[in-house]
Amino acid sequence: MTKTPLRLGIVGLGTVGSGVIKMLNKNATLLSARTGRQIIVSAVSARSRSKERGIDLAGIDWEDSPVALAKRDDVDALVELMGGSEGPAKEATLAAISTGKDVITANKALLAIHGQSLALAAEKAGQVIRFEAAVAGGIPVVKALTEGLAGNKINRILGVMNGSCNYILTRMETSGLSYDEIFAEADALGYLEADPNLDVGGIDAAHKLALLAAIAFGTKVNFASVVLEGIGAITIEDINAAADMGYRIKLLGVSQMTERGLEQRMTPCLVSAGSPLGQLEGGTNMVILEGEDSGQIVLRGAGAGEGPTASAVMSDIIDIARGQRINTFGQPASSLVDAKPTTATTSAPFYLRLQLLDKPGALAKIAAVMGKANVSIDRMRQYAHDTDSAPVLIVTHKTTRAAIDQILNEFSKTKLIGDRPVALRIESI
Amino acid sequence: MTKTPLRLGIVGLGTVGSGVIKMLNKNATLLSARTGRQIIVSAVSARSRSKERGIDLAGIDWEDSPVALAKRDDVDALVELMGGSEGPAKEATLAAISTGKDVITANKALLAIHGQSLALAAEKAGQVIRFEAAVAGGIPVVKALTEGLAGNKINRILGVMNGSCNYILTRMETSGLSYDEIFAEADALGYLEADPNLDVGGIDAAHKLALLAAIAFGTKVNFASVVLEGIGAITIEDINAAADMGYRIKLLGVSQMTERGLEQRMTPCLVSAGSPLGQLEGGTNMVILEGEDSGQIVLRGAGAGEGPTASAVMSDIIDIARGQRINTFGQPASSLVDAKPTTATTSAPFYLRLQLLDKPGALAKIAAVMGKANVSIDRMRQYAHDTDSAPVLIVTHKTTRAAIDQILNEFSKTKLIGDRPVALRIESI
Q1: Do A256 and A157 form a contact (C-beta atoms < 8 A)?
Q2: Confidence label for B158 from pLDDT (cuts 50, 70 and 90)
């Protein structure tokens, strides 16, 4: 071993930061064999110095200021595990770049908002920013996309990238309990962010999707244009009805480059119950990368947690230790083009659930509205009922979201539809 | 673009070689953006110059000799797609290394047999050998293991790595036809190697498993010690009986480092029908990497075919174009240790299918044999029958292969077991 050690500075010592230090310690021999050098931690910084973390920080300097840590001469690479798109995480990242350090981050919010400017700054300074841990926890999906499938034109990316949402949806299905009940359960188990809207509103998953889209399509990260719809409106009735027709409901991220522009959606969708996505239970994540030549590559693993996320951080650390230097989004940030987003999404079948008033001719009227909008019906079910309205499920043939919105609007004018009608896209996989 | 082009020499122009040239042509702009340089083909070599391949070879030199091609001054990297562990593939690889070229290969047999000496030679010469396409087609599993999970101690690798075998087994299940009938069908469809024993004997898949094990455990490739059992003895009765008890039969590769030594098996196993492996249909491949911290990472995709395999070759080409240089097995070949193989495999439940002669006390005698060998019964089924023997299925509690072999031996002495008894391991996932 003739190479100099790689010296890390770690800011943020939550479960992931602690996990990284544990892995560096217990796997030191293995890491030296694999990278040809020693990996050491020069300094750490976190909010509380006294907190018990189950790790030995002896011999590691403490810095109260993440920025001061980032600027230290004995740090070659900053490991940023604080989170948040603004404030100390961003400041420490910029300080590291400006003083000649590489940056490894698990911070999806930071990169989803500032990825383009940070990547530009890093590349101008000859440094790299890597972010495997920011997307889908322990699954090496950033590497698979940026390197493993780099020979392919990417056609589409799909994924379940928020384990908390998938936990809630699959628990609703197995327990038969309501969204509110399972939300409370997930919250009590500590599965939700301090601001749960980051999870159930789909924001966290949309950050991840936007990062993958930039790599896949050579576009500047464009989080703002992700069509975003959380899972808060999903009812146990929808979950049961979807199951009854052979589907499962997932908070599904989809990104594809179309003639109309870049399509990015993070919305609840129906997927076939027998597909790999349909079979995904609990907090597990799955990302499907569709390359023109590779075909569908399905990646599945833990989307969060100390070990899996630390494992992803470690892979970036090892890349840097090995001298594997790659542009943040797989090509120079200066060559990324504006995304030209479209909200006119690709056509698809849709699932509709209506409460239809029990009046003669009601169904005929609904069908006529759909016919007029050129939305044809693939399958329909009306269920027995003992109230004055009947639950009706409709699966349409392929149509557009715009046409669906139009018929929902027309439906409401008929005064025949009780409750809020539900319309969810059925994604083909 | 200030960097010089990467100049390739390709030996072997079957479907994969042609696929690589097609990808280089159609994705030239995208590849330049992603690698920062042009990738060109200086020369090609194949058995037949006149064969129609659907690719334009204008401007590319032709060499009759793969070795002469490998030695050319205008080749920076050799792309070896001929196959075979000896002869021209090995000679061209050695010629490339000795004249200062990197090597990209899809040749699992070559590396399974000569991987250690070739990696040593390459590393001594400062060259790299990369082989993403040698394992599981389009799935970037070599990269996931060598780089993505490099921070982890790897606990176990499992996988279905031969699409032809999985096709045969799943077709038997869906059609109810016999092994021989489906074997003939697969052969007619061109799914089998010229020597079908490479597929159905498990050799091809065992080559792949041995390569992954070397990376995972830091051991010299040891193909010779893989416990090898093909699918030729699997009957439709076993497939149906397994399904009846909630299992599917897969040709499963498993590798793990135990206290007894390195365990490598490529054998038909039962897996839970509801697991990702159990749900794998047709020619698709799946590899599961179990890292101590990452947990289970499941990778799934096409295991063969022009596009997927060419995509994997391209990822190695791109790595080299980008200057990403990594040791063949993830650490210096000189640091890989001898594998110390064990055939004393980890204990597991086993599935037994017996034809039990219809005599009073027969079952008691069988049960006594099992009890004496300390093999306890988890579940048992005896089926209705109109012959003089009854099919009996037994699922044991965890035991060893040695104990199973012992009871099979004792069974035969009882003269109560007709036909050949079947014993298959049940792998927990």
Answers
A1: yes
A2: very high
Pick from A147, A314, A315 the residue to mutate for testing the B interface (most B CBs within 10 Å): A147
Against a cut of 0.90, is the pTM above it?
yes
Which chain A residue has its CA at the smallest distance from B302's CA?
A295
Instruction: Convert the pLDDT of each residue in B339-358 to its tens digit.
Output: 899 988 889 999 999 999 98
String of b and e for A12-31 (b: at least 16 CB within 10 Å)?
Answer: bbbbbbbbbbbbbeebeebb
Q: Are B11 and B66 in contact (CB under 8 A)?
A: yes
- Contact criterion met (CB < 8 Å) for B331 and A34: yes
**Considering Cα of A25, then A85, then A300, then B115, what sign does the dihedral take?**
negative
Instruction: Considering the candidates A101, A143, A208, A220, report the single residue annotated as catalytic.
Output: A208
Q: Which CATH number fits domain A350-426: 3.30.70.260, 3.40.50.720, 3.30.450.20, 3.30.465.10?
A: 3.30.70.260
Q: Which residues of A touch B152 (CB under 8 A)?
A: 23, 27, 311, 314
Chain A residues within 8 A of B291 when measuring between CB atoms: 138, 311
Looking at the partner chain, which of B149, B291, B307 has a beta carbon nearest the beta carbon of A295?
B307
Across the range B86-104, mean pLDDT stands at 98
Domain B141-303, CATH: 3.30.360.10
Range A144-302: architecture per CATH: 2-Layer Sandwich (3.30)
User: A415 an active-site residue?
Assistant: no
Q: What is the pLDDT of residue B387?
A: 81
Q: State whether A297 and B140 contact (CB < 8 Å).
A: yes
Q: Least CA distance to B327: which residue of chain A?
A: A34
For residue A83, is it left (φ>0), alpha (ψ between -120 and 50) or beta? Answer: left
Residue B419 has pLDDT above 80, yes or no: no
Q: Are B300 and A144 in contact (CB under 8 A)?
A: no
Gap between the Cα atoms of B278 and A277, Å rounded: 15
Q: What CA–CA distance (Å, rounded) separates B283 from A45? A: 50
For A199, the token pair is 């999870």
Interface ipTM above 0.90: yes
N-terminal to C-terminal alpha carbon distance within chain A: 48
Contacts with A313 from chain B: Cβ below 8 Å? 151
Kindly determine whether residue A326 and residue B326, on different chains, have CB atoms separated by under 8 Å.
Answer: no
Same fold, B141-303 and B350-426: no
Where in chain B are the domains?
6-134, 141-303, 350-426
Reply yes or no on whether the pLDDT at A1 is more than 50: no
Return the residue of A nearest to B26 by Cα.
A153
The alpha carbon of residue A289 is apart from the nearest alpha carbon of chain B, in Å, by 10
Q: What is the largest CA-CA distance in chain B?
A: 86
Task: Judge: domain B6-134, CATH 3.40.50.720.
Answer: yes
Return the number of CB contacts < 8 Å for A and B: 191
Q: Is the pLDDT of residue A124 over 90?
A: yes
Which of A132, A153, A300 has the CB atom closest to B298's CB atom? A300
Cβ separation of A34 and B132 shorter than 8 Å?
no
Q: Whole-angstrom Cα distance, residue B151 to residue A308?
A: 10
User: What band does A387 get if pLDDT is binned at 50, 70 and 90?
Assistant: confident
Q: How many CA atoms lie within 13 A of A38 on its CB side?
A: 9
**CB A138 to CB B297 under 8 A?**
yes
* Residues B28-50: tens digit of each pLDDT: 999 999 999 999 999 999 999 98
Closest partner residue to A30 (CB to CB) among B143, B153, B325 is: B153
**Nearest Cβ partner for B276 among A300, A311, A314:** A300
> Contact B296/A298, CB-based, under 8 Å?
no
User: What's the CA gap between B81 and B88, in Å, rounded?
Assistant: 11
Residue A4 per-residue DSSP state = P
Active site residues of B: 208
